[in-house]
Amino acid sequence: MQPLLIVMAAAYGAAAGLLVPRPLYRLAVEPEEPWRGACPRGHALTGPARGWLGPARCAGCRDGERDYGTGPVLGAVLTALVCAGLAAAVGARPELAVWLLLVPLGVLLTAVDLAVNRLPDVLTLPMAGGAAALLGAAALLPHSAGSWPRALLGGAVLGGAYLVLFLISPSGMGFGDVKLALTLGVALGWYGWDVLFVGALAGLLLGSCCAVGLVLTRRAGRRTAMAFGPFMILGAGAGLVLGALGAG
């Protein structure tokens, strides 16, 4: 069962990753700009979910000009690998479905933040609510390995901690990071307070080390804005794997 589960998770991840370039293209804009609604040559983006779902390929463009945005291969491979790793660690538990649904959104948020130093509310806020609701449903099913009340408290704790960091240093921490912390706290809190601590600390350490490295190599200054969301997501992913393995 486990090898089949891993293969199915990887296949799902690859398929979901192929859909990342279109919303990435639409969302990777500066805060004062509206979401993109047309391809680079001006054709309106249409399709499922008001044009948010589908390949980054414009039917109205000429041959050789149809593709836009980033290529789909990297996103598909990355999403497939993450989904397969989570399936291997979590196994056939109800919460695996929640993590697999969050992975493409995490990949998308990572790409958007790296592109424009932004974590859009259209992703972070629904993620927090969706994670809380879905884990509540998972807690009702047999063989779940976490605690839903603790997950909710975890979201509040980590979100509150990042809010304090934002108030202390608004130039070093964006409010989007605070909203992302709600989702990550819910996910990490599901497996335990120690998992929450490890996942949150890992994200902070990874981000801090990268910032120090950029400053030392003179590729960034002390006040240079840096995308912190990817490190938060990476640390939380590592925490989830450790929590799932510990719960097994």
Structural features, described:
With 248 residues, the protein is an all-alpha fold. The protein has helices at 2-17, 21-27, 48-51, 72-90, 95-116, 121-139, 148-168, 175-191, 193-216, 229-247. The longest helix is centred in the last third of the chain and has 24 residues, at 193-216. The two termini are 16 Å apart. The mean pLDDT is 92.
Blueprint of the fold:
Layout: H1 2-17, H2 21-27, H3 48-51, H4 72-90, H5 95-116, H6 121-139, H7 148-168, H8 175-191, H9 193-216, H10 229-247
* Low-pLDDT regions: none
Order of helices and strands: HHHHHHHHHH
Radius of gyration: 19 Å
**Share of helical residues:** 55-70%
Question: What is the end-to-end distance?
Answer: 16 Å
Question: Structural class of the helices, strands and pairings?
Answer: mainly alpha
Summarize, please:
The protein has 248 residues and is mainly α. Helix content is 68%, strand content 0%.
Entry keywords:
mainly alpha; 10 helices; 68% helix
